[in-house]
């Protein structure tokens, strides 16, 4: 139920969707006796779209998330395993074209392969099924990721897959049941930097102490990006949408008891 509710509510709560709905509502009011209010609504929502799309609002939302967990030191000891969260593979296109296709967050996969080569004795675990709300994907994301890992030269004997999870909470619970990590083991958690606080909090709450290995940064960490406009507008809107979702996810997961604190840190 939590999975379906979160998907439905987010469709309405996404800033770009909400602002576009307000513009549509305002446009409809133009043909009624509330035309004056409709004009105000259209102008206000259009201004909101402009602010979200051009201003550095998305950067302001992303930087606290991405700066929360630093990368491990270069001389870190070899880990027991490398745990990669799904969200990167486009399983629909992969199945349709017969070729592994990365849809988003490519760093999760490229860094996973880099780490696998750097630590040849570490297990490589990928967790991700299908996150669609309606219907079924032709293949789970883990299968597409496995095909990509094999093409990049990773020994299939090192790869463990979790194919059923639909969100980060299920990533943690279902993968822990498969891997059964032991006390004293070191597991690197590879996911997007902005997604790391919530991910670490979820894994801790599930009883799995992981070491954060953030990737796929959206911000550069430089002062001037805090005031520079973002272009194209589509990138700004996408960044605001994704970062707003992450902050709302932190609050929802904390309220639901799925993370150990509101803003998990090192």
Total helices: the number is: 10
N-to-C CA distance: 31 Å
Radius of gyration: 20 Å
Class computed from helices, strands and strand pairing: alpha/beta
Q: Examine the coordinates and then state which fold CATH places here, giving the name of the CATH topology of the largest domain.
A: Rossmann fold
CATH superfamily of the largest domain: HUPs
Element-level helix/strand string: HHHHEHHEHEHEHEH
Strand % is: 5-15%
Task: Report the biggest beta sheet as strand number plus sense, adding barrel if it closes.
Answer: 5 strands, parallel
Number of strands: 5
Mean pLDDT: 91
Widest β-sheet, arrangement of strands: 3-2-1-4-5
Provide the CATH architecture of the largest domain: 3-Layer(aba) Sandwich
Under CATH at level 1, the class of the largest domain stands as Alpha Beta
Residue share in helix: 40-55%
Q: What is the subunit arrangement here? A: single chain
Pfam family, one: DUF218
Domain DUF218: 81-249
GO biological process, one term: Gram-negative-bacterium-type cell wall biogenesis
Keywords: Membrane, Transmembrane, Transmembrane helix
